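>> Question from a student workshop board

For tomorrow's exercise we were told to take the sequence and the ligand below, predict the bound structure, and bring the output to class. My setup keeps failing. Could a helper post the expected result so I can at least see what it should look like? The ligand is zinc ion.
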Amino acid sequence: MKRKRKVNKKRIVILFLLLIIITLLIICYICTLFNSKNSSLKDIGYNNLEITEIEKLTKSEIDTIMNYEYNKNLIYIIDSENYNPNKLDLYLKYTEKYKDIDYLKIFELINHEDFNEDKIEDYVNILDKYDVNSVIKYINEYNNDFKLSDDLMALLNEKYFINDYLDRYLNYYKNHKDLTYSEIVKRVNAKLDYTFYEDSKESDLSKGMYTLVNKFYYLDKDYIPDDLVTVSGIYARDTAQIKRVAYDNFVKLADDARSKGLTLKVTTGYRSYNFQATLYNNYVKADGVKNADTYSARPGYSEHQLGYSLDLTNKNNVSFDEFANTPEYKWLKDNAYKYGFILRYPKGKEYITGYIFEAWHIRYVGIDIATYIYENDITYEEYYEYFLR
Ligand SMILES: [Zn+2]
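>> Workshop helper replied:
Here is what the output should look like for this input. Compare the format with yours to find the bug.
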């Protein structure tokens, strides 16, 4: 009995020792694992503070982190309230790949519910120009129609490109793929994605002498400009009124023309709403709406009501149609801008202005703008939309 008890005691001690050894072995194994992980993160370049944060993550997240180089934004990403562990691999992959781009934008992009990894190159191409929602929308919506990143980059680089109109450019492009990007931008800026008189608005009179009046911007029927002066008989064929600043500059223009043997005379300046209404209605009666619209403005839509426009003739009192063939026109074409006037309805721009070529109609906009428009061969529609809108 005594012997048997002794044997049992010995067995228990051995078992107990074995248990301790196994426990120690397990602890050691865990320690090795832990140390190796720790030293790997260190090898990658993370410091102790960063490692403390990283070790709060799951093993699989830590494994993912160890597949990549040191990422200086990692801690901000995993500490962010929008951090999604399932997207950790994407965050690391693309913040590493696109180091030059703000990581917050890439983070936001990847978190977007419509993010599509296949389109990442396209997104990134325009990520610095737009907010993430727009980037996702533009790329997802239009990419099926054409190779967007190239098209978009070409569009973005257009001289008169306006950010707010990107949707309209792309929609217009869908139906006009034969046009150049510069033509797309030009047309949309001039509202040619609408038809004339559609979606028209009251002119913005706060723009003063730069106010745009055309087939999309109209003046109230009661609008009468102040500061109108009567054009002296020396400079006029008929009784005409015009804004003082335009008159003063027209006098300079006409005097300089006269010194070259050319006579420029005003036939019309300011025209009231009611006068324009009578004029337009008579043209419509004689010629039909469609034709009348090509040469006569509907009441309210005439630039003459603004007071900065003049119709001209010469000493022979030629008709409007003949004026383009006069030496006066030839001189005016290349000199009016020096006095702050533009040819408002030029040849070749009929589809933009909505009017036939009117050699005889000039508009005062000041020397700086007139010079820009002359040198860049653009219409006032294009200038206004890009610079003054
Ligand atoms: Zn006119």
